[in-house]
Amino acid sequence: MINQLSWKVGGQQGEGIESTGEIFSMALSRQGYYLYGYRHFSSRIKGGHTNNKIRVSTTATNSISDDLDILVAFDQETIDLNHHELRPGGVIIGDSKFSPKQPEGCTANLFSVPFTEIATDLGTSLMKNMVAVGASSALLGLKVEAFNSVVEQIFSRKGASVVEKNLQAIEAGMEYFKKEAEGSVGDFQLKEADGKSRMFMIGNDAIALGALAGGARFMPAYPITPASEIMEYLIKKLPEYGGTVIQTEDEIAACTMAIGANYAGVRSLTASAGPGLSLMMEAIGLSGITETPLVIVDTQRGGPSTGLPTKQEQSDIFAMIYGTHGEIPKVVITPSTVEEAFYDAVEAFNIAEEYQVPVILVTDLALSLGKQTVEPLDFSKVNIRRGKLNLEEELPELEKSAYFKRYEVTDDGVSKRVIPGMKNGIHHVTGVEHNEQGKPSESPENRKAQMDKRLRKLQELPKVFPSPVYKDERHEEADLLILGFNSTRGTIQEAIPRLEKDGLKVNHGQVRLLHPFPTDELKAMVDKAKKVVVVENNATGQLTQLTKMNLSRGDIQSILKYDGNPFLPSEIHNQCKELF
Amino acid sequence: MATFKDFRNNVKPNWCPGCGDFSVQAAIQRAAANVGIVPEELAVVSGIGCSGRISGYINSYGFHGIHGRALPIAQGVKMANRDLTVIASGGDGDGFAIGMGHTIHSIRRNIDVTYIVMDNQIYGLTKGQTSPRSEMGFKTKSTPAGSIESALGVMELAISAGAGFVAQSFSSDLKELTSIIEQGINHKGFSLINVFSPCVTFNKINTYDWFKENLTSLSTIEGYDPSNRSQAMNTLMEYNGLVTGLIYQDKEKPSYESLVKGFKEEPLAKQDIALDQGQFDKLLTEFM
Questions:
Q1: Which domain holds residue B103?
Q2: Which of A284, A527, B201, B262 maximizes the CB count within 10 A of its CB?
Q3: What average pLDDT does this structure show over A346-372?
Q4: CATH code at position B182
């Protein structure tokens, strides 16, 4: 019996590869296993190799694995492209239809199972995915009953007989494989899980759910990979809560429409990836100077330009921090797990309103789209704080011809905010430099007062932001501190015990607040380490540079990967070892 | 009851003496009073350019945004609070050059916003360059040999894009302009009002006199029916777009807000945003 394994299904895009992975993992999730998935796909609808790699474990797991135990293939290309990941003794299960062949040098056990033929005999070749799920589940020691509720959920709309047929297909796959493989494979049987059904979701689901729980009721957005799931979830849910999603003509409209709605008192967000964020830069500056709350989600993918639209990268952070002309207060948050993505989404709206600033919630493709097991989310941690927004109070009458002092200079830099419709709250809002009433002003004294007021708003944020750095500090004096952000957390966590086994003392920090930078917190961590290395999915070491600059420390090294794929634990392990 | 004076503030416009935009400002103030709203119920969102300053010259909530983006900001405001009267405004460069995409899609979307364009056929604030509304051959600083791009027929474009309210007016005719803006505000859905608003400093061709000579009021065309889409189109073509009055209105066209599933009469901005434990638990279960 084993505690964890990695399973991958591959084939042509549009062939149901995703749903094969979905059914397999949902069933395991409901048995109480922890899962972590990563989808490899291309920017096209039909055709082209796609695969879905799923890690299954009896304990929490937050990373893809180095190798692969089981490869389910719907075509030879899947075998040719992926067999090198298989561990010695691993298994390939291919559809007999394409006569799977063992590639040269591949030592995995190859089984040919007539997925399509069995499915066709049962009624329709469409069920070949079910046969494949069944065959590979037999290897894990699962029983067909494990699939009852999932198949019921997916196919009940199509009638009881369809449910029945699909279950039969799974069972037929199981039976065929058991006979075929009897005694000839190693131990792939998973230890029994705790039976607790946990949530199983992608980072984008968590962000959308966080936005809803955090009070967002309006989302203008333009579709883009890998952000669209956020708008797709909210268009299903917001109408139940009075709100809606508008699919706009472009990202500039999305961003400025969200600014308009926030100005008028509704928590609003938009979500995009690099190309859309580039278009929003001017509007982000507008949010900054007009002190209009705004939440933007940037799901990073491979850049620049269209770049690698369906691949992992973490190269937007300079653009997110510095990308707007002029100088504004801005918050950039980088959650590193799906749970954090949820809580940080809620917090993004609170910070946007409390400080009246644009907040960019940044993820990466692996975090946004990787489907993983999530422990129950805690509703008691969801609170809504709207800062100095005044919605109820009767406002004092304004003097004749005077406006409400929307931009009153205050000690903390934050001024009282009112929304259109409120009597005695009339004021002007403009992206032109303005005085306390919002009226344009070019006076040098006023300029300085308003600039200083805006820029002092966030001074204290790194001190009050919940865990600006996720810390795993096992050692008072460490040989190595590994820093990262977003989805690399789990992979770094997996590399650490291996490094410790090699005799190194390793601490780990995952930066969750990129701007304003948590300098003090990181300095304390860096001071405890002989060497510091930043692991990031980009080519120029953006977080490394940011850390060097803020900590005034030159000896920080980088481990970089920018080929479109997430890090493997072994890559981090090996490259860290080479530093010594 | 508010009067037009209640919509005045003490800010002195930085427009040139004689600028057509003064009349637009006055007409908005009068129309707002005439439709019976008070200043805090009006939000004026404007773009960038001379005319974009208008949101600062009216005693109401005002949002002066970025170049070409008055419309999406205005639509966001209206979606957040449908009790507000929302006017978007700006120049022909703002709405028909940099912001043209938003203009067309605002027409398609049909959120209840009144869009007033101050059309002077030139870029004024940048001191005299060609605009999408400049005629072929028009000489400006950016077209010293005369414009070699054709002028955009925005009224025709709006009608073909499915607009429910299309009107045109002229700064010299405050009475008609006020009435048109009132009708635009009262129209349930997106309304486009193009106002010929002469630039007395940089446009020496399309002057007040030029417009007086070349504009035809639709009220003088016998049998003109603004509910007749093809007549509207034909008339615009016949007069090369140089007409004033209500060109086309479809009173039956449902506004975007009226079509949004579950969208309440109570403004979104006034609704409670907190979930309860039961709602939250139900949302979580869907991921299990």
A1: 4-285
A2: A284
A3: 97
A4: 3.40.50.970
